[in-house]
Design a protein that fits this description.
single chain; 397 residues; alpha/beta; Rossmann fold; 2 domains; five-stranded parallel β-sheet; four-stranded parallel β-sheet; 43% helix; mannose-6-phosphate isomerase activity
Amino acid sequence: MEGTAGVSGRRVADESMLDDPEAVANHDPGGMLRFTASAGAQVRESAALAAEANLALLEDEGRPRAVVIAGIGTAGRTGDVLATVAGPRCPVPVIPHRSAGVPGWVGAADVVIAVSASGRSPEALGAAEAAHRRGARLVAVGAPDSQLQSVAERARAPFIPVPRRAPARASLWALTVPVLLAARTLGLVKVNEADLAETAARLDADADRCRSTAESFVNPAKSLALGLAGSIPIVWGSSPLATVAARRFGDTLSANARYPVVTGALGEAGRGRVGLLDGVFGGLVESTRDIFADGDEVEPDPTRLRLVLLRDGGLNADDDTDEPLAVEERRADAVQTLAERRGVRCDVVTAEGGSALERLASLIAVPDFASIYLALAHGLDPMAVPAVTEMKELSNP
């Protein structure tokens, strides 16, 4: 069928192939595992490139009224990361924006950070052009020698180049670090060089733990992937930081493994979505299998929910109370208990590290690899997503 070249895969995951490094390499011809393993290097490279950009221009007019981070897809997630790392005590609003242009109120008192891995996304380009017209301060982050760089040059705005060494969805850290460092220049976050170094080291360590030659019983990403195989994943984050990681996992499960997934904040889930555990895909639904049926007539087990809970026991440095932490921890304990009572299996990934950025990295790294291993277990190439290419062709003039 036209437009579906490269679509393949099996309905039932092949668990054995994940412990065959040669088979893994053959099913990953585009190198998504290798690109994902470069996350630590992305942090270091982007920090160096940001240091070479003239971000001091941002300081000339002092603290902005608001900061808008414009982008879509992985670029859009950078705004979520900044808003969460900045925390609730950030002195100005930090607003992720995923549509073309900018909000109507944006003007000379504001800063727009336009982000695009390719440097040509309509959302980032439209935001950069609108910021320039309205006299807002602009920062652009994207591929060198791109349309976005041209807009930044016309606006005499700082441009931080991000070389296209990996697909956009495997470039989260390359895009995020410049955004954070621009925000640091504006006095909005307290990310220092030690935080960046520790985050990069954390990503390197997790990449080593999740390497293709590590067998499933010691590889947390392979174990997570095999647990999710054949299920409908629900990924909930126990805190704002963990919720960003949960939504990122939803992105990669959809794009890499082509799995439908429900993601969100645990607090919101407790107001309604936790009812999924009682639904027809939950663990207590009565089976209709005929135990006396012939072997050839036995239907496979129905698809069930699989809960992934991302837990973050840390606090932002400027929090002055343990109450938010206590509430989040109680909710996380409660949902684990509910899942256990209903027979819904639950995987838990717990944040580690001192800074907010390092804790976020610890919640993102293993799930990133798990989404790739899940694709490979189903015989899918995680790099090739024909529907994405077709969508771009059909929607572009």
